[in-house]
Amino acid sequence: MKIKNICCIGAGYVGGPTMSVIAQKCPEINVTVVDLNEKRIAAWNDENVENIPIYEPGLSAVVAEARGRNLFFSTDVDEAIDRADMIFISVNTPTKTYGIGKGMAADLKWIELCARQIARVATSDKIVVEKSTLPVRTAQALKNILENTGNGVNFQILSNPEFLAEGTAVDDLLNPDRVLIGGDIDTEKGREAMQALVDVYGHWVSNDHILTTNVWSSELSKLTANAFLAQRVSSINAMSELCEVTGADVNEVSKAVGMDSRIGAKFLKASVGFGGSCFQKDILNLVYIAKSFGLNEVADYWEQVIIMNDHQKRRFAANIVKTLYNTVSGKKIAMLGWAFKKDTNDTREAASIYVADYLLSEQAEIVVYDPKVTEEQIYADLDYLGSRTGEENRKSVKIVNTAKEACLDAHAVALMTEWDEFLDLDWEAIYEKMLKPAFLFDGRKLLNKKKMIDSGFKFYAIGN
Ligand code: UDX
Ligand code: UDX
């Protein structure tokens, strides 16, 4: 079976880059990315390719190459579904904010809506691919909906979780550690569908990097991978607090530990806390699943990763207040970086949001600079928390266009995101323009301690 037309529902951080790379690497396949959000689709179609809605290094060049040739962005969901042989579902699956499983389970509302729409529209056989991260056994629910509400056509459901990380999405897609495809491995039709997807990736990924499993293993592997990665960050963050009280340096500890080939060096960087759309959501989801099977010890074990992460964000903010003589009321604090990591404009679950919220509750005045995040997004993130009115947020938080401007007349600087440009700032000039004593809190352990102290700062870094 040869795939000629692909449709992807959801033009977000996962759907957009993934489909762009598939289109670039498979010029003979038509790829249409659809989304309900008209503004987002318009941005993907913007004449100036630098205006696409997602900032990822290298992505605009991929889009420029394929867009209009075999890569299309559209709001006509029905049409794209009908034409496709293969449909990726890449809509968001946030943590539920209501009802059973509130604050833990994944909200599958959008997934179900997609399934019902596919069932209603499809007049020919389709392979439906779960790209969104989903609780184990969601494929079964999808199958039930498709088979019971469809027009009698055949649906094959595959799970193909995405492992790309934001900021390195294009590179991760071009050179994946592995591509995971779960399907109905026990039937001929299931195996055919899996092979069709293997052949799509086969355009640029070697066979030994493509794993095929049953659907449940694939779904659970995605949650497991994210839980393990987040667990490493919480583990080193737990050590960072111990380093601070013992005089050890967390970077030295993580280097020494990471050189053990059994442990490995990656994901051992202490920080103000992990953010992003996946880690917290997926672990909460894992905890919920474990609890629902009565596996309370398993649930508690993974929940601790989140508890540690919340603690890390809170203690960073509390330390700022404590260091500034137990009050930040009316004091100006510059926050450098808002995104949850460098090289992305994504702010979902960013530590900066929670640190800002804490400081605002202590009546601080905040000035934010981030090279890629818009003012609109920063206010939306704070408003979403509901801790104060939108008007109050706009009064106490200002957004500026340079780091230098943010730090002018500030009592303290909090470095929140490890953007490269923060390394190259003229820190001595920044120091000169701040109120004294000038405090600098490095939430990423990015800056050179000695240099900062020599420049005059009262310097504090996570884990040191
Ligand atoms: C992805 C995954 O799909 C999610 O499961 C994973 O855990 C995080 O990453 P992402 O691409 O980052 O989500 O989400 P987002 O950027 O919010 O994009 C989802 C898009 O789907 C949005 O543009 C939204 O408008 C669209 N959508 C949602 C639809 O087109 N139809 C719907 O019914 C729901
Ligand atoms: C993650 C997974 O890495 C990816 O495989 C999955 O598909 C989606 O979730 P992402 O959230 O985009 O990707 O970024 P990631 O690089 O994993 O960083 C997540 C958070 O952890 C960031 O806030 C980052 O700053 C933080 N982090 C990461 C650390 O604090 N220390 C580290 O050593 C690594």
UniProtKB/TrEMBL annotation:
<dbReference type="GO" id="GO:0006065">
    <property type="term" value="P:UDP-glucuronate biosynthetic process"/>
</dbReference>
<feature type="binding site">
    <location>
        <position position="348"/>
    </location>
    <ligand>
        <name>NAD(+)</name>
    </ligand>
</feature>
<feature type="binding site">
    <location>
        <begin position="340"/>
        <end position="341"/>
    </location>
    <ligand>
        <name>substrate</name>
    </ligand>
</feature>
<dbReference type="GO" id="GO:0006024">
    <property type="term" value="P:glycosaminoglycan biosynthetic process"/>
</dbReference>
<keyword id="KW-0520">NAD</keyword>
<feature type="binding site">
    <location>
        <begin position="132"/>
        <end position="133"/>
    </location>
    <ligand>
        <name>NAD(+)</name>
    </ligand>
</feature>
<dbReference type="Pfam" id="PF00984">
    <property type="entry name" value="UDPG_MGDP_dh"/>
</dbReference>
<feature type="binding site">
    <location>
        <begin position="162"/>
        <end position="166"/>
    </location>
    <ligand>
        <name>substrate</name>
    </ligand>
</feature>
<comment type="pathway">
    <text>Nucleotide-sugar biosynthesis; UDP-alpha-D-glucuronate biosynthesis; UDP-alpha-D-glucuronate from UDP-alpha-D-glucose: step 1/1.</text>
</comment>
<dbReference type="GO" id="GO:0003979">
    <property type="term" value="F:UDP-glucose 6-dehydrogenase activity"/>
</dbReference>
<dbReference type="InterPro" id="IPR036291">
    <property type="entry name" value="NAD(P)-bd_dom_sf"/>
</dbReference>
<feature type="binding site">
    <location>
        <begin position="91"/>
        <end position="95"/>
    </location>
    <ligand>
        <name>NAD(+)</name>
    </ligand>
</feature>
<dbReference type="InterPro" id="IPR017476">
    <property type="entry name" value="UDP-Glc/GDP-Man"/>
</dbReference>
<dbReference type="InterPro" id="IPR036220">
    <property type="entry name" value="UDP-Glc/GDP-Man_DH_C_sf"/>
</dbReference>
<dbReference type="InterPro" id="IPR008927">
    <property type="entry name" value="6-PGluconate_DH-like_C_sf"/>
</dbReference>
<comment type="function">
    <text>Catalyzes the conversion of UDP-glucose into UDP-glucuronate, one of the precursors of teichuronic acid.</text>
</comment>
<feature type="binding site">
    <location>
        <position position="35"/>
    </location>
    <ligand>
        <name>NAD(+)</name>
    </ligand>
</feature>
<dbReference type="InterPro" id="IPR001732">
    <property type="entry name" value="UDP-Glc/GDP-Man_DH_N"/>
</dbReference>
<dbReference type="InterPro" id="IPR014027">
    <property type="entry name" value="UDP-Glc/GDP-Man_DH_C"/>
</dbReference>
<comment type="similarity">
    <text>Belongs to the UDP-glucose/GDP-mannose dehydrogenase family.</text>
</comment>
<feature type="active site" description="Nucleophile">
    <location>
        <position position="278"/>
    </location>
</feature>
<feature type="binding site">
    <location>
        <begin position="222"/>
        <end position="226"/>
    </location>
    <ligand>
        <name>substrate</name>
    </ligand>
</feature>
<protein>
    <recommendedName>
        <fullName>UDP-glucose 6-dehydrogenase</fullName>
        <ecNumber>1.1.1.22</ecNumber>
    </recommendedName>
</protein>
<dbReference type="GO" id="GO:0051287">
    <property type="term" value="F:NAD binding"/>
</dbReference>
<feature type="binding site">
    <location>
        <position position="40"/>
    </location>
    <ligand>
        <name>NAD(+)</name>
    </ligand>
</feature>
<keyword id="KW-0560">Oxidoreductase</keyword>
<feature type="domain" description="UDP-glucose/GDP-mannose dehydrogenase C-terminal">
    <location>
        <begin position="334"/>
        <end position="449"/>
    </location>
</feature>
<feature type="binding site">
    <location>
        <begin position="269"/>
        <end position="275"/>
    </location>
    <ligand>
        <name>substrate</name>
    </ligand>
</feature>
<feature type="binding site">
    <location>
        <begin position="10"/>
        <end position="15"/>
    </location>
    <ligand>
        <name>NAD(+)</name>
    </ligand>
</feature>
<dbReference type="InterPro" id="IPR028356">
    <property type="entry name" value="UDPglc_DH_euk"/>
</dbReference>
<feature type="binding site">
    <location>
        <position position="262"/>
    </location>
    <ligand>
        <name>substrate</name>
    </ligand>
</feature>
<dbReference type="Pfam" id="PF03721">
    <property type="entry name" value="UDPG_MGDP_dh_N"/>
</dbReference>
<feature type="binding site">
    <location>
        <position position="444"/>
    </location>
    <ligand>
        <name>substrate</name>
    </ligand>
</feature>
<dbReference type="InterPro" id="IPR014026">
    <property type="entry name" value="UDP-Glc/GDP-Man_DH_dimer"/>
</dbReference>
<dbReference type="Pfam" id="PF03720">
    <property type="entry name" value="UDPG_MGDP_dh_C"/>
</dbReference>
<feature type="binding site">
    <location>
        <position position="166"/>
    </location>
    <ligand>
        <name>NAD(+)</name>
    </ligand>
</feature>
<feature type="binding site">
    <location>
        <begin position="278"/>
        <end position="281"/>
    </location>
    <ligand>
        <name>NAD(+)</name>
    </ligand>
</feature>
